[in-house]
Every structure is written in structure tokens, then in C-alpha cells.
């Protein structure tokens, strides 16, 4: 595996911020409640305090990780509060570009039966509806801002198991699909979007939604013997064996990503940077380290933005009983993105 520092040496850096700014500057409004100054030169971070909701005691889903990601980024001086963009709640109209009217009506109004709740892993509540809508709004805003700035990261997102008419696997609304569909629809030409999904679980909902959409390419690198049991067919699926470690994993990503960028030529990349390939993850079966995750995220984002293609990144899956340890692991994405922002002169 080639050294990332060799690939992106200081003498060959691109001023991608200038390229992207010229290509994607737009006067239309963003889906945000509150925006940082357009003159701000720092990496945009998308966050909302309502990315969380109450769950029953001892619930397995680590809801507390979302505010802690932002906490550690500020505490460790990776970012400042001035970098934070606050998304609007996703409207029913926006969500309907992916999800069926019947499902949205049932989801919004609490008509989700017990069997359907078991499939999602969540008991229904008004709070869970609200948080999922804000999370989806955050991914849409990250994609919008990335088109103008070149790179943006949310502190949530990556709910890739949600299908048009039902939720599954802790995913109730498919934020990646909504962002992709929305941004394809509002451009003067139909944007081509590459979804790079490196969560340890296959993005089955996203694959299903875009199986007949030539302007979206779904690329999933996942553990073959993990959830979901019945996989969908992405445009490119890379099924990994249990126990894979950093070197082989990174080599796999490096083998495929550059070729996809050259052949598909996307206008935008949506990157699901799930940390559940980590060796300590409760629901993963791979053996990546913190450093492996950092090198992965650094490689993906540098490879894309150095070609003049904007990236919107979400944190994806990650499971631990220790919210602080998990939040720090998720913050690897934003730390790597900050490095990319500096190195690429954005």
C-alpha cells in the first residue's frame, strides 16, 4: 500500500477550494436555520442539538454519542463554534422524494405497529420522528454546503438501511438517499452522485432505492457475514471477511475508489464514514484501529477533493456502551477532514 503522504505531497497540492468555489457558488438559500459567515475559511460542521431523543433505559442504540462528538471537537480545539451550521428540520415534502406517502403518514403520526418497531430497533415516539428529520436535514445541508465549499461534515447521518416504505436496523429515514435525490432534482443538469459507504454493514436501503438510477452509483465495502442477512445489490459491493485489519482494508479501498472516480465522474460524493469496522465495535466483525480509520477517512476525502469533486461526509454506524469513547472514535472523521481542508488549501 502506497503511503498517503507520498500520494499527496506538499509539492503537488491542489487549491481545490478555488476550483470548487468557481464551479459551485450559488445564490440560492441553504436548508439551514443558522449559517456561518460565507467569508469563513474553516471546515463547515453540520450539527443540531435535536439530533438526539429519549430512549428506554439500557437501549442498545448509543443516542448520547451525537452531542459528544461536537463536544470533543470543540474541547480538543479541532473546530470552533463559529464553524457550526445548524440544519432545518426535513419537511415531509423533502422526504417524499424517497419515501412513500403512506410510510411518512404512518411514521409522522405514530401508526407504526409493534412488528415494524422491532424491525427498526426503536419504539415509536414524537422525539424519534423529530430527531430523524433533523438528522436528514443535516445531511442535506452538508451536501449543499459541500457543493459550495468543497467539503462538509455532519455529526450524524448515514441511515442507509431505511427503505422507501419501511425502516430497518436503527434507520427510519434514508438521509443519504434524500440528499442525493434532492440535489439531483434542483440542478440545471441532473447531478451524478457517488455514494461511498464504508460502514461495516451493507447500505441495503440505499442500494435498493437507486438500483435503477444511472445518475447515482452506490459503492459499499462491508463485512459479508454481518447485518443485513439478505443483501441488496449495490452498483459495486465489496464483501469483506471477518477479522480484516487496517492494511488489507485500506488496500481494498485504494484499489477501487480512484477507478470509480475516473469512470463514473461524479459531481458530488456522499461519504458514509461508519466507525463500526473498528476492532472494539459491538456490532462489527472487522479489526480496524483508530489509526486505520483515520487513514481511511484521510485517503477517501483527499482522493476525492484533489480531483475537484466535493464531499459531504456523515458519521455512519458505531456501537459501544461508552458514549465518550464512541464519540471520540466518530470524531476521527472530522479530524481527518480538518487535515484535508488544510492540506488541499481549501
What does this molecule look like?
Pfam families: Hist_deacetyl (PF00850). This is Histone deacetylase domain-containing protein. The protein is built from 13 helices and nine strands. By secondary structure, the chain is an alpha/beta fold. It is globular.
Strand order across the biggest sheet? Answer: 1-3-2-4-9-8-5-6-7
Query: Strand fraction band?
Result: 5-15%
How can the largest sheet be summarized? 9 strands, mixed
Order of helix and strand elements from N to C terminus: HHEEHEHHHHEHEHEEHEHEHH
Number of DSSP helical runs: 13
**Silhouette:** globular
Average pLDDT rating: 90
Q: What gyration radius follows from the Cα positions, in whole Å?
A: 18 Å
| Low-confidence runs | 1-28
Give the distance, in angstroms, between the N- and C-terminal Cα atoms.
27 Å
Please give a quick description of this structure:
The protein has 346 residues and is α/β, with parallel strands linked by helices.
Amino acid at each position: 500500500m502506497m503511503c498517503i503522504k507520498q500520494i499527496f505531497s506538499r509539492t503537488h497540492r491542489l487549491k481545490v477550494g478555488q476550483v470548487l468555489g468557481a464551479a459551485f457558488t450559488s445564490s440560492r438559500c441553504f436548508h439551514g436555520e443558522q449559517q456561518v459567515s460565507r467569508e469563513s475559511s474553516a471546515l463547515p460542521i453540520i450539527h443540531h442539538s435535536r439530533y438526539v431523543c429519549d430512549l428506554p433505559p439500557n437501549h442498545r442504540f448509543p443516542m448520547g454519542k451525537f452531542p459528544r462528538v461536537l463536544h470533543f471537537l470543540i474541547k480538543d480545539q479541532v473546530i470552533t463554534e463559529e464553524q457550526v451550521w445548524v440544519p432545518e428540520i426535513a419537511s415531509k415534502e423533502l422526504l417524499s422524494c424517497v419515501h412513500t406517502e403512506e410510510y411518512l403518514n404512518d411514521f409522522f403520526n405514530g401508526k407504526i405497529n409493534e412488528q415494524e418497531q422491532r424491525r427498526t430497533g426503536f419504539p415509536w415516539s414524537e422525539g424519534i420522528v423529530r430527531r430523524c428529520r433533523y438528522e436528514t436535514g443535516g445531511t442535506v445541508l452538508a451536501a449543499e454546503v459541500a457543493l459550495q465549499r468543497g467539503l462538509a461534515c455532519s455529526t450524524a447521518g448515514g441511515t442507509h438501511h431505511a427503505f422507501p416504505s419501511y425502516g430497518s436496523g436503527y434507520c427510519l429515514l434514508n438521509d443519504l438517499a434524500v440528499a442525493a435525490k434532492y440535489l439531483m432534482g434542483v440542478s440545471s443538469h441532473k447531478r451524478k452522485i457517488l455514494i461511498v459507504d464504508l460502514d461495516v454493514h451493507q447500505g441495503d436501503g440505499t442500494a435498493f432505492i437507486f438500483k435503477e438510477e444511472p445518475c447515482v452509483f452506490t459503492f459499499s465495502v462491508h463485512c459479508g457475514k454481518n447485518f443485513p442477512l439478505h443483501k441488496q445489490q449495490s452498483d459495486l459491493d465489496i464483501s469483506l471477511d471477518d477479522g480484516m485489519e487496517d492494511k488489507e482494508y485500506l488496500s481494498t479501498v485504494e484499489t477501487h475508489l480512484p477507478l470509480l472516480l475516473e469512470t463514473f465522474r461524479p459531481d458530488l460524493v456522499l461519504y458514509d464514514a461508519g466507525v463500526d469496522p473498528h476492532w472494539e465495535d459491538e456490532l462489527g466483525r472487522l479489526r480496524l484501529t483508530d489509526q486505520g480509520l483515520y487513514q481511511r477517512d484521510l485517503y477517501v476525502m483527499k482522493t476525492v477533493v484533489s480531483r475537484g469533486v466535493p464531499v459531504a461526509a456523515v458519521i455512519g454506524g458505531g456501537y459501544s456502551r461508552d458514549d465518550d469513547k464512541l464519540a471520540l472514535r466518530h470524531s476521527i472523521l472530522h479530524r481527518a477532514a480538518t487535515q484535508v481542508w488544510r492540506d488541499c488549501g481549501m
